[in-house]
Each structure stands twice: as structure tokens, then as C-alpha cells.
Write a structure and sequence with these properties.
301 residues; mainly alpha; 0% strand; globular
């Protein structure tokens, strides 16, 4: 179903928009507090949608344990590590490392779901991933923009990004059985995100509340615009983006959908061009061409 596979691209667009909004908000809130607020807001919105639309069904509760585990692994661990990596490495470099969630998803879906890709599909996925790597590694000119600077240890940022990628891939895999059994994708997303929100609130209250970064603002100094921004990010990235991705995973091959969702770093490049005022290098354009070609092959296959 090509339309379902397009869900990966739509999710990538949503995540691109939210990723570009993230650096300033993370700096003001602090990474853990920001993620807790963002996921909690997304959870409330999704639960409201599900209760109003009566989307919770028996199939959802039959797979509740796997969905709860998916929320802990994919949202609590995966999303938290991803945004920590964005804070440490910037959107561009965190993006190329997070793109490894695509080959991770292909491997995991082959091992545990018996999902196979044809040689043509593997070639197309390889083109997408190659394009992403080229665009990110060779897609910038030397500059000292804040989004390109490393905060803290580089190795810690790399491990955070790779951990986020593994969490994302594993979380997607764990939610698929419920979707195949007929559970509503938005309800699955609501249960996953709510589980992640509860885990984040507990972790923040018990361990992180008194360990805010030195540059994070006290809660009383945050402005209404900060919370509006967090709400916008929650709506675009989690409510819309994650729900669309979950729907795509339930109706198409996990590896293909995840590969298409990995084009976020390429989509970020034009925005970085606008923000920094520096045109991406030749590698960015080459990478973008490979990504578009690979995505087209996947959709048209």
C-alpha cells in the first residue's frame, strides 16, 4: 500500500518542523524538563481525541502489555535520548546518527516479524540511507552557528543518538502486533505516549527536578510563549507525526516506513540554510537527490 508507506515521509516532515523548534526551547527548559512537558501535553491531547472519538477497543487492551512496553522503550527512553542528543550535537549531526533507526528497524522486523524486503526494496532503502549520510556528513560549510556546536562530551551525544534510534526502532516493532490485530492507530499512539509521559514525570520528579542544567531557566521565569512552543511541538511531532507513523507501520513494512521517516536530516538542510545564511555544500544536494530517488523507488515499487 504505497499511501501507507508515504506515512514515513509525512512523519519526517512533522519531525523536521518540531526538531527546528527544539534547540531554543530545550535551552530554556532544560532537556529532561522540556521532554517531560512536551510528552505530557501530547498525551493529554491524544487521550482527549480518543475519549471523544471512542477509539479504545478490545484489540487495544488485548495487546496492552506490549504497547506499554513500546511506550517505555520508544517514547520514554528513545525520545528522551534523541532530544538529549539534539541538545548536545545539534539537529544536523543528531539527525544522521538517528537515521540508523532505519537499518535497525529492517533488521528487527526481519528477525521478529518475518518481514522481508526484496532486492529492489533493499536497494531503494540503501539509496535513502546513503543520501542521508552524504547530506549530513558533507552537506555543510564551515561555520560556528550555535546549532553546529558540541555541548559536553561528543561521545555522550553519539551514544544518546544511537540509543534513541534503537529505542525508536524497538518501540515501532513492539506496537505492530496490536495494529495488525485491528487496534486503532491513534489509540495505540495515545497509550504509548501516555506511558512515556507517566515514566517521564516519575523520572523527572524523583531524579531530575533538582538537577537542572546551569543555563536552564527556573520554572517561574519561563514565558507563555515557551509553553505555547512546547504545545506546538507536541502537536506537530507527537500527536500528528507519531500517530501517522504508527498508522503507516500497521499498514506497511516496518523497514520501509522507518527508512522514509529517516529523511528528516535532509529536510532540515534547507531550514539550516535559511537560518545560518550559508548555502549547503554540493554533498547536501547529492544526498538529497539520492534520498528522493530512493523514496520514489520505494513508493513506485
Amino acid at each position: 500500500m504505497p499511501f501507507a508507506e508515504l506515512a514515513g515521509l509525512v512523519a519526517a516532515l512533522c519531525w523536521t518542523v518540531s526538531s527546528l523548534m527544539a534547540p531554543r526551547l530545550i535551552e530554556r527548559f532544560g532537556s529532561m524538563r522540556f521532554n517531560t512537558v512536551r510528552i505530557s501535553i501530547a498525551s493529554l491531547i491524544l487521550l482527549l481525541i480518543c475519549f471523544v472519538g471512542q477509539r479504545f477497543n478490545d484489540q487495544l487492551w488485548q495487546h496492552s502489555e506490549m504497547i506499554l512496553l513500546s511506550g517505555v522503550v520508544g517514547i520514554f527512553l528513545g525520545d528522551t535520548m534523541l532530544f538529549s542528543a539534539v541538545h548536545r550535537l545539534g539537529s544536523r549531526r543528531a539527525g544522521v546518527l538517528f537515521a540508523t533507526n532505519a537499518p535497525m528497524s529492517i533488521l528487527l522486523s526481519w528477525l521478529f516479524l518475518d518481514e522481508y524486503l526484496s532486492l529492489n526494496q533493499l536497494f531503494a532503502c540503501g539509496l535513502v540511507l546513503t543520501g542521508v549520510v552524504i547530506a549530513i556528513l558533507f552537506g555543510k560549510r564551515n561555520n560556528n552557528h550555535a546549532w553546529e556546536q558540541t555541548k559536553g562530551k561528543l561521545s555522550a551525544g553519539i551514544l544518546m543518538a544511537l540509543g534513541g534510534a534503537l529505542g525508536q526502532a524497538s518501540g515501532a516493532l513492539l506496537s505492530k502486533p496490536a495494529l495488525l490485530d485491528g487496534a486503532d492507530p491513534i489509540a495505540v499512539s495515545a497509550l504509548r505516549v501516555s506511558t512515556g509521559a507517566i515514566a517521564l514525570i516519575l523520572a523527572y520528579g524523583l531524579f531530575y527536578r533538582h538537577k537542572q542544567p546551569a543555563d536552564a531557566l527556573p520554572i517561574w521565569q519561563l514565558k507563555a510563549a515557551d509553553f505555547i512552543g512546547a504545545t506546538a511541538m507536541a502537536t506537530i511531532g507527537m500527536v500528528i507525526g507519531m500517530s501517522i507513523l504508527v498508522w503507516g507501520i500497521g499498514n506497511a513494512n516496518v523497514g520501509i516506513v522507518t527508512t522514509l521517516s529517516a529523511v528528516v536530516p535532509v529536510l532540515i538542510l534547507p531550514a539550516l540554510w535559511i537560518t545560518t545564511g550559508q548555502r549547503p555544500a554540493f554533498g547536501a544536494w547529492l544526498g538529497a537527490i539520492l534520498v528522493v530517488t530512493g523514496a520514489a523507488l520505494i513508493i513506485l515499487h
